[in-house]
UniProtKB/TrEMBL annotation:
Protein name: SLH domain-containing protein
Domain SLH: 360-423, 424-487, 490-547
Annotated stretches, region: Disordered: 174-195
Annotated signal sequence range: 1-16
Keyword presence, Signal: yes
Keywords linked to the UniProt accession: Signal
CDD domains on file: Type_II_cohesin
UniProt source species: Paenibacillus motobuensis
Chain segments annotated as coiled-coil in the UniProt record: none
Keyword Repeat: no
Biased composition (Low complexity): 176-195
Length: 547
């Protein structure tokens, strides 16, 4: 939102070297630098865009001009502290690169000199050329009211640094190789490509590196030094090194503060940004050389948080993140709880403070239900899968509707975190997009876990029957590939013939997994609605089976 605000501000004013605003600091300027010696036709080289002598450079738009006949833009990458949001534009005909950049986060003490971006060019023609900054627009993070009466960011005056001059030499009669992927400023005729032993030895050194950050740096250096197509052996060595590096790089540090049940884990925004930037950079470099791996492409940042039980119920523990806006601890869904190891693994999507806490919410109407159901209700409440019907009541004998059960299963299996259907149009005529359960139903439909009825309805307010409940859960586990192979030896219920044909396989599997058992006289009673207490038992058994 802030970046969009910057763009609105910037686009509303014509580019100038000294735009209207308060001067940021004496001699504040945007400069270009880089090693441009010994450039030959076919070489690629990198220029760095920097901000110098700024007190608070929050966002900037830069227009670079270059000779389009002699130079070609190959890559644009924002500096570590800034982001281009992939909004840069290249006009190859005019030889212009429009580059908008915004700081990733507000800083209490902004740096006076900042690395804004790197631009990689390829030399196309032997001649003397220059790259210059043609236009600049910069703003600080301080807010003000503009002439139109709207809140705006304060403009900063900035000068353009000197143009950088490049003398491109011929390739000594040898045609340039544009497919080599060369990334240094030395031509391939001057510097031989890395040999197989060099690449393989480098990959081995990365595998032996214990520090994930150092391993990532070594991997990037090895990838950036590649000059030619790789052999199958080289690709395999690099792939193994990359997978090991990404596995280590995916674990973001969670700094521990305090001890015992009061332990707080802090994920810093700087660590989160740095690890994510390295991960994205490695992926891009690997894709460039057609080294692909689902393990690398699907890697997500995570943090590991250990705990001591200290008399708490292990099944009622969860990870909570401190919400600075509301002053409350919010439950974090989608964590992986390794009970034997005494730790949680959390998707590191937000910086902040985290705690592992036990949640308990007493209900006044569950004392009289059977012990298994009472405990299941307590555990699922602690896991924020089920809620009470009021602050003090659970209503254990109340029937569960199809809409309610759909939401319980989505939360229990975190299906919405795997496949969001927020924008999906409802597949059922009786499920409006404004309904509180519409997103959950849309997720289940998208994953082919539910189908609804032949008339195109879902009937959300109908009680969910025992056979419907079992089919939904078995479909969900099958969709997640969590169902074991069936032995087909489950004992039949005495009322097996009353189970619908579309539900029999699921009911038999659920019984084999000990998720359901018969009522009196070994009957399943498939068409009977289920109540909240029994539903809690069923879901808790499912979670135990998955664990």
């Amino acid at each position: 939102m802030i970046f969009a605000l910057c763009l609105i501000l910037i686009s509303s004013t014509v580019f100038t070297y000294g735009s209207t605003g308060v001067r940021a600091a004496e001699s504040s300027k945007i400069t270009i630098s880089g090693n441009v010696s010994n450039i030959r036709v076919g070489d690629t080289f990198k220029l760095q865009i920097n901000g110098e002598q700024f007190e608070d450079l929050f966002a900037v738009e830069v227009m670079l001009a270059y000779d389009a006949q002699a130079l070609q833009v190959q890559d644009v990458k924002a500096g570590e502290a800034y982001d281009s949001f992939d909004a840069y534009q290249i006009d190859a005909a005019k030889g212009e690169l429009y580059l908008p950049l915004a700081r990733k986060q507000l800083q209490p003490n902004p740096q006076a000199s900042v690395h804004l971006a790197d631009v990689t060019f390829r030399a196309l023609k032997d001649k003397g050329v220059e790259v210059q900054i043609r236009r600049i627009k910069a703003v600080g993070s301080e807010r003000q009211t503009n002439q139109q009466g709207y809140k705006d960011l304060k403009g900063l005056t900035s000068e353009a640094g000197e143009a950088i001059v490049i003398q491109i030499a011929k390739q000594d009669g040898k045609a340039p190789d544009y497919s080599s992927g060369q990334t240094s400023s030395t031509s391939s005729s001057d510097k031989p490509a890395a040999s197989a032993p060099t690449i393989i030895d480098g990959a081995k050194a990365i595998l032996n590196e214990k520090d994930p950050m150092k391993a990532a740096e070594k991997l990037q250096a090895l990838l950036s030094g590649l000059k030619s197509e790789l052999s199958a052996v080289e690709k395999e060595a690099l792939l193994q090194a990359a997978e090991a590096t990404v596995a280590g790089l995916s674990v973001v540090p969670a700094n521990k503060e305090g001890t015992g049940v009061d332990t707080v884990y802090v994920i810093s925004a700087a660590d989160l940004s740095q690890y994510d930037s390295l991960l994205q950079s490695i992926r891009a470099s690997l894709h460039k050389w057609n080294i692909d791996s689902p393990q690398i492409d699907n890697a997500q940042l995570k943090a590991v948080m250990e705990y001591t039980l200290s008399g708490r119920d292990v099944n009622k523990l969860g990870v909570y993140r401190y919400n600075e806006t509301s002053g409350t601890w919010d439950y974090v869904r989608g964590t992986v709880h390794q009970i034997d190891a005494g730790k949680f693994t959390v998707a590191a999507k937000q910086a902040g403070s985290y705690r592992i806490m036990e949640y308990s919410r007493p209900y006044t109407d569950t004392a009289g239900i059977y012990a298994e159901a009472k405990y299941a209700v307590e555990v699922l409440t602690a896991k924020h899968i089920v809620n009470g019907t009021s602050d003090t009541l659970f209503s254990p004998s109340k029937q569960v509707t199809r809409a309610e059960f759909s939401s319980m299963i989505v939360r229990a299996l975190n299906l919405d975190l795997l496949d969001s259907a927020d924008q999906a149009k409802s597949a059922y005529s009786d499920v409006g997009t404004e309904a509180w359960y519409s997103k959950d139903v849309a997720v289940l439909n998208k994953l082919a876990i539910i189908n609804g009825f032949s008339d195109g309805t879902f009937r959300p307010n109908d009680p969910v029957t025992r056979e419907q409940m079992v089919v939904i859960v078995m479909n969900a586990l099958r969709s997640l590939e969590l169902l074991p192979n069936s032995s087909g030896t489950a004992e039949k219920f005495t009322d097996d013939e009353t189970i619908s044909s579309w539900a029999k396989d699921s009911v038999n599997m659920a019984r084999e997994l000990k998720l359901v058992s018969g009522t009196g006289q070994n009957r399943f009673m498939p068409k009977q609605p289920t109540n909240r207490a029994d539903t809690a038992v069923f879901i808790w058994k499912m979670l135990q089976q998955l664990n």
